[in-house]
Design goal:
globular, 6-stranded parallel sheet, 29% helix, 323 residues, alpha/beta
């Protein structure tokens, strides 16, 4: 079968198409005939060898942790009724950039009939994470919420979920193309955090008070600047570090400013809830209440181009491989 392997740690060019034997399902596992493979920004950092939060995979390895397709084989102790069903699945740790992939039966979600496989894949794991972030932040109707990287896969879902909660959204991103998308998703205001006065714009939009909630997926200087304008009594939620460093706030400083910091350590606690949230976000999308943004797709052989599109921030929403 066709696969794409990372031959070493480095830039997108280390992703090389090749061949591999078809996988076999072990006990408690299934083999998925992959139609769509997803990817996240974190996976590009793992490929670079710069990610600080996950163990480095053994080289060479097949990237990809989320796939969508049909189950074509089941292993021992797996209900045979899974065979032929459309699913979205999380692979054990890697292996999704391939025509077939192995997943544990406990890591499968049946895809609703009203939802396409690309849309289902685009919602995982970002849709589950977005639900968890909104739940943890305890957003209230009428609040102002600043969302960094609001045109990305996770950010675009946060915009829609926050709006559905009755809160008001300020979407932050770079460039007119991304701003147009954020407005179409329902944001009340848009700022460009490549501009030097972007935080002053946030203050002005919120009537001088600052946002009640910040979703910080960028970190670095942008995350720090967003914390500085968070309203007193507000919540500052950290979920990513696309800048390379996660925002860390001194507890004394947070207390002095009356801000509750929900740090990046919230993410590991999401694990037991991801399947529940995954089913919930797909149901919302199947009902037309949430729209995953699929900005660009590539064939399997162009996995390197897909990773490059994520890294250079040129894409909108989710980037997918169609296999």
């Amino acid at each position: 079968m066709r696969v794409v392997r990372a031959m070493r740690f480095g830039g997108p060019e280390v992703l090389v198409p090749g061949e591999a034997p078809a996988p076999v399902a072990g006990a408690g596992q299934v083999v998925v005939e992959v139609s769509v493979a997803g990817m996240t920004f974190v996976e590009t950092q793992i490929r670079q060898g710069t990610d600080k939060w996950h163990d480095k995979p053994n080289l060479p390895y097949v990237p990809g942790t989320v796939v969508a397709g049909r189950v074509n084989a089941v292993g021992a102790d797996v209900d045979p009724n899974w065979t032929g069903r459309r699913v979205v699945a999380r692979t054990a740790s890697t292996g999704g950039f391939a025509e077939q992939a192995v997943a544990g039966v406990d890591d499968l979600l049946a895809v609703p009939d009203a939802l396409g496989l690309p849309e289902a894949c685009a919602l995982q794991p970002d849709g589950s994470a977005a639900l968890g972030l909104v739940e943890n932040a305890r957003i209230r109707s009428g609040e102002w919420v600043l969302i960094e990287a609001a045109a990305g896969s996770l950010g675009s879902l946060l915009v829609q979920l926050v709006r559905a909660s009755g809160a008001r959204v300020i979407g932050a991103a770079r460039g007119t193309r991304k701003h147009d998308l954020i407005r179409r998703l329902g944001a009340d205001a848009v700022v460009d955090y490549s501009e030097p006065d972007w935080t002053r714009q946030v203050i002005a939009v919120t009537g001088g008070a600052g946002p009640d909630v910040v979703f910080d997926g960028v970190g670095g200087k942008i995350g720090r600047a967003a914390f500085e304008v968070t309203a007193r009594g507000g919540r500052f939620s950290v979920h990513g570090a696309s800048s390379g460093t996660a925002t860390v706030i001194d507890p004394a400083q947070a207390q002095q400013r009356g801000v509750t910091v929900i740090g990046i350590e919230q993410l590991p606690a999401f694990g037991p809830h991801m399947l529940r949230w995954g089913a919930q976000i797909m149901a919302e999308a199947a009902a037309g209440r949430i729209r995953p943004v699929i900005g660009q797709t590539f064939p399997l052989e162009r996995a390197a181009d897909a990773h490059a599109a994520i890294e250079n921030r040129s894409g909108l929403g989710k980037t997918l491989l169609l296999i």
